[in-house]
Amino acid sequence: MFYEPPYFLLVAGLLAGIASGRAFEVTLRQAVQSWSKSHSTRTLRELQGISLTLPFMGMASGICVFLASGLNIYGIPVLFSYIVSTILTVGTALLVWTQLRRLLALLEQGGSKALDLDAL
Questions:
Q1: Which terminus, N or C, of the chain has the lesser number of Cβ atoms within 10 Å?
Q2: What is the DSSP secondary structure assignment for residue 89, as one 8-state letter?
Q3: d(CA 68, CA 41)
């Protein structure tokens, strides 16, 4: 039923990561638009709840399976490939989540003008 190289898991992980990433983008965009209309700090604090965390974790899980399957296709043992991909995915996810929290804090303090990327 399962092929030796995990092509199915490779494609499934990629599709899960893309689908969850799209849900993450839509949820984040809606929350920021809602905040920009009301300027309520409550809206931005709600982003750290389940509505944004669940798609983010789905995206990270899909990427982890994709990376592990890709390593396994090149002949790396399954356990080692999942260990390496988990470490890479968790590390990257933590960095992205930390940066997102910083950007939302900047947005909350100074509005959209605080996110002037040319000044950085």
A1: N
A2: H
A3: 39
